[in-house]
């Protein structure tokens, strides 16, 4: 295969059969049926024939094979299209057009503007000055911001094919890896070695933009390219439903073995009791086929269909279409981004209905990731306010001009210089800043509003308009930001020749690197940072250091050596940076606002009402994280926060132990509490004995906020919760590349296609455009899919046991001989044809409760989990299957006991009994599907009644086969006429299924009356009330005019709410009102048009307003009010007692 040819196909012509069979026979049920099919080939051992299992099994395998081939064919077509793209390759000094598949390592290629790179390339030169090029990486990470690349100065002059043809060099680089943001290599030209890195690497799949052409040298091709290295399959996740189903199958297997042994014992007893007294059967006494082991094998084959052969393919069909439902749900479509929900896998649909823990990123997930520069701190003074949409404080420049603070210009210059932003000029000289980090772009725009405008980037230089004059700064070195360093530095030389180190980063790393005597500056800055954090702003600190020429010249060679290193490069760079980033002078701090996404508080409240624990995992500082937690309703003013902020293992362990006891006390007092823990404490909390205390405490908390976290810590927390909460499903949701590890570690990963690109969405199991769509994804699709799939599984077990256990009852009357009551091919076609559609329609069209109702009453979500696939519910279904089989067999047996069911006095024989019983079983199990379906739609009714009709048609056709096909259907010849000509058969068809299903009606009625489930209550109330006022948090004019009323919905909510009830005290006069009061801890949302409101607040205390109808708010109810007149839809939240706060 050519080096650059790619293949994402799963199979080829030779590997399809072995790989497909390996995939299929990793499933225990397929191995079981293979064994049965092989046992049936033993002569005279199978009472059901040699092919009655093999043929249905082959049909099911064929369906799976066709599905695999169809999916693989789509991959093959896509590969062929990509491999055939055209590219220009340098051959004998001329550009020659070839296909991507022909590209090889070491060749020179030309890529034109707006074209994709066919392989990983070293940028040699470009049409731009000094070898600069702009690329877009949306195919790799979803980011549409342009990134700048620059060729080395020793290759940038090579701008013609003739020069390239004469150019010779030796390239040494690291082995292929999947790290798209890291790369190291050296190029040796005429004995001179130069390092090149990620700034010179053009990745396969990226697109050239705003550059006429580039020349590149091929480094990695095909599957060695970073794009293909990152195309590995996500870790295989198995659903809890599948695991439980496997356990149920294993249980039924042992039941099958037990029944085979019992039947063989019955056969032995019958033989010993009857054969000695029957001289005409004496030859059976010494028949080797009458041995005990032979009997066990015979009955094992006879009862094998107790395990449903079609279960797996039925589930695959159901899950496939359930995923299509998710993809096409218009309620989860976002018009702003023109994107909708995407189910990237269908195997975890039921897991969405069993979520107990949600691990959520903050930035871009709960917030919009649209950054705006809000505040700046310089010296002792704080500039800006919290009310304006962006920074707008004229006193900043006024103070600079007055000479009050010379550091003002320094911090504005740092904002305009210390970054990796690329300016792009649009028509009308408008500047557009392209940046992979929204924070950096916000700071550059903020500096521009203060007349420090960054407008030109050149290799090793940036040009800024400083108060009307252009100033050029030479970029000597850039020390990049990493998650470990938590800071970025640039070393610049200004026009006067001064060399400066500019550093920006987190306060914790900046403060500890300041020069001695900076304590007062740190105190002033810390006070401002705490104020910023109280509003949920993202903060950065800035520091500067003036370098002497000798100091820089001494340091630079060591840093250059670290840059050229291939091994341990990151560690060597960090060590070199530490030698320079010290004894700095604090310049100031900035605050950037990242607003909450729409409906985040409502979504989190609904999820918590559904008994789901929500965790927020963020890299922000503690104060910011706590404030965002309040803003998004994760915690409330009355929530007690258990803050773990220790730096040593011993202190962290003691704190966790102390809080574990406190949590038990708070649970007894029925008070809400949440835990807040930072990254340093978390490092110790996940180690040794502390891990146990941390896990126990975290699982007790209503919410958990983890701050200052690294990406790997997020994944470790997810794995810890998965290991401790074995019964609960853990869902992780994020939007950035730093969330990929967390998403892949969770049971279910949800990605948000946001400002940080599509890496999280690409690695996820489900992708949604906005966080608030998670509410519908879980409460509606999750609850529905879970309930539907469980019904499919239980129904599949039920219908098989209902039919095939009849063979056991018949064995009692057939001398335990192993004789089957049914014709052999009807046995095999039961799952494949006659009862194939009822479970499918149950899984696709059943609506347990209306979507609007479960959105209003999230507590219904948890109620679905309790009884859906419990051992009790499974036992009930199996018990009913046994009862139904008893009823169907013995009613049919007694109805045909005299065998004379025709006026002429004819008898029908054993097959008349079998076919009648089979007909009644088909009718019963199909009608059972209708009984179990909560909403009858035409597909459900057609599938159930049509299956009964299909059996009737089959009987007629099968009765006419013999003697046309001499080896098939001899026993069934004429059976359709024999059976259908008996009027008693038709009477029994009406009576026996109805009588059998009376068991269901009685048991269902008793359970509904004595122990109604919340779902049953919901169904009853939805039928009695045309409109329901429930847990509906979205703003509505109805709520503003009416409020909650004492109707069936209010009573219904109180009956199944999962919140712990707290008895009101008599002094609470608001409870005495005739109007029904909201439930404790509930939340309302209403609209108001203000008559009067004070100027916007600067803090969270006592914001006053006057709605149209001011009502007393109970102290234990949170009321959210939306001002419809505000353009920015400010939201105010009353935390109880009449105090209203701004969300």
From TrEMBL:
Family: Belongs to the cation transport ATPase (P-type) (TC 3.A.3) family. Type IV subfamily.
Residue span, P-type ATPase N-terminal domain: 2-53
Pfam annotation, one family: Cation_ATPase
Cofactor(s) named in the record: Mg(2+)
Protein name: Phospholipid-transporting ATPase
Gene Ontology biological-process entries: phospholipid translocation
Organism: Caenorhabditis angaria
EC number: 7.6.2.1
Active site feature: 361 (4-aspartylphosphate intermediate)
Bias type Polar residues, positions: 1066-1089
Membrane topology reported for the UniProt record: Multi-pass membrane protein
